[in-house]
Amino acid sequence: MNITFDELRQMKHSLPTGSISKIAQDLNLEEQTVRNYFGGDHYHSGGEVVDLHIEPGPNGGIVHLEDTRILEAARKILESVES
């Protein structure tokens, strides 16, 4: 799946407080792995490297996501907040 880096960051910033922890717990991941997925600090020593590839371009570039479980979990949280 492809998404712009700006869209990915906007989604992260739209999540309610505690969402990163909830996603990590639900998917049995480290919180830093979830942060890395949303373009977190690439120099942080914690968490896993997530399976994504960023191509330069407008809106921060295009991010190709191989595994969309974190993205889908974030979308579910955002949908529940909106309804």
- Cα end-to-end separation: 25 Å
Find the structural class using helix and strand composition: alpha+beta
* Tally of structural domains: 1
Backbone shape: globular
Helicity, as a percent range? 40-55%
The spatial strand order of the largest sheet comes to 1-3-2
- Gyration radius, to the nearest Å? 12 Å
Strand content: 5-15%
Distinct helical segment count: 4
Poorly predicted sequence stretches spanning 5 or more consecutive residues: none
Q: Summarize the biggest pleated sheet.
A: 3 strands, antiparallel
Give me the count of strands.
Answer: 3
Return the average pLDDT rounded to an integer: 85
Question: What would you say this structure looks like, in words?
Answer:
It is a single chain. The chain is of the alpha+beta class and 83 residues long. It has one domain. Helix content is 48%, strand content 13%. The protein has helices at 5-14, 19-27, 31-37, 69-82, and strands spanning 2-4, 52-55, 62-65. A 3-stranded antiparallel β-sheet has the order 1-3-2. A hairpin with a 6-residue loop joins strand 2 and strand 3. The chain is globular and about 30 Å long.
